[in-house]
From TrEMBL:
Family as reported in the entry's similarity comment: Belongs to the LysR transcriptional regulatory family.
Record InterPro entries: LysR-type_TF_proteobact-type (IPR058163), LysR_HTH_N (IPR000847), LysR_subst-bd (IPR005119), WH-like_DNA-bd_sf (IPR036388), WH_DNA-bd_sf (IPR036390)
Alphabetical UniProt keywords: DNA-binding, Transcription, Transcription regulation
UniProt-listed Pfam families: HTH_1, LysR_substrate
UniProt xrefs under PANTHER family: HTH-TYPE TRANSCRIPTIONAL REGULATOR (PTHR30537), HTH-TYPE TRANSCRIPTIONAL REGULATOR TRPI (PTHR30537:SF74)
Record protein name field: LysR substrate-binding domain-containing protein
Residue ranges of every copy of the HTH lysR-type domain listed in the record: 6-63
Length: 297
């Protein structure tokens, strides 16, 4: 069945003018010129065969036929707007922007993503590399972090996912030596200590938690944590690592953890931005991360 509809593109201009009582106010609301709104209303009036507005002092008021159209147009635009918002929300809920370090992404998260997508095929993760430079809040919905020794996440937005465990790792046979007795029974020395930007204080935090005092001849700073871990595998120094990041290297014998790992309860966690707190996709991601984080603890 064919429909003889009025010019639909003119209805927002008509409805805004009817609601605001002024072409000028309607044009400002719609971000259009006074002339463009007037032209659309005139075109709509001509199509429907009569005036829709009449002068009322310095403003406009609806004619009886204009009032009939307003009731129908307002209801239609309200319903259309609600449907559009629902559709946009469904589309927005499909994607989650997840900020994560390149090391955690490559060594732990990405190998597990097939399991996530098998469970949640309608959700797509868009990874944002957090790296040494801090992301803006607008760049991500969820920030995933194991680096509780560094801190920096806003406490109000944090969601614990599981424990973290930190330990010194080095290549087998790396010259890690116990220091002279006068330095204490837990004193050790290493030629080179490996670290990365914004994480220099993590060594001090680890030594306090583990009770191991470590001296080094020099400190070598790498741009990314995975580079420091690669240097440790190559026998270039000792690095500090969260256990999840080096499980494969430990199992293959490429690295050893001579002092074991210090557990930090709830050290593996996420920060959820306020705009993403109530989204179904974010809740599903966090549930899966809790399960994945607990595997192997």
């Amino acid at each position: 069945m064919s429909r003889r509809l009025p010019p639909l593109s003119a209805l927002p201009a008509f409805e805004a003018t009817a609601r605001r009582g002024s072409v000028t106010a309607a044009a400002e609301e719609l971000g259009r010129t006074h002339s463009a709104v007037s032209k659309q209303i005139r075109h709509l009036s001509e199509d429907l065969g009569g005036d829709l507005f009449e002068k009322a002092g310095t403003g406009l008021r609806l004619t009886p036929r204009g009032e009939r159209l307003r009731r129908s147009a307002t209801a239609m635009l309200d319903e259309l707007g609600a449907v559009a918002e629902a559709l946009r929300a469904e589309q927005d809920d499909r994607f989650v922007d997840l900020a994560v370090s390149a090391t955690l992404a490559s060594r732990w998260l990405i190998p597990r993503l097939p399991e996530f997508y098998a469970r949640q095929p309608d959700i797509e993760l868009r990874l944002r590399m957090s790296g040494p430079q801090q992301l803006r809040d607008s760049d991500f919905d969820v920030l995933l972090s194991y680096d509780r020794l560094r801190g920096g996440l806003r406490e109000a937005d944090q969601r614990p996912l599981g424990q973290a465990a930190y330990g010194l790792v080095c290549a087998p046979g790396y010259p890690l030596e116990q220091a002279a007795p006068e330095q204490g029974p837990e004193g050790w020395s290493a030629p080179v200590r490996l670290t990365q930007p914004n994480a220099l204080q993590t060594w001090g935090e680890w030594m306090q938690r583990s009770g191991v005092a470590l001296r080094s001849g020099r400190e070598e700073v790498h741009a990314h944590h995975f580079l420091a871990l690669g240097a440790a595998v190559a026998g270039l120094g000792v690095a500090l690592a969260e256990r999840r990041l080096v499980t494969g290297d430990l199992a293959a014998g490429r690295l050893t953890a001579p002092f074991g790992f210090v557990t930090v309860p709830d050290g593996f966690r996420a920060a959820v931005m306020p705009r993403a707190r109530d989204r179904r996709s974010v809740a599903a991601l966090l549930d899966w991360l809790r399960t994945a984080a607990g595997q192997g603890d």
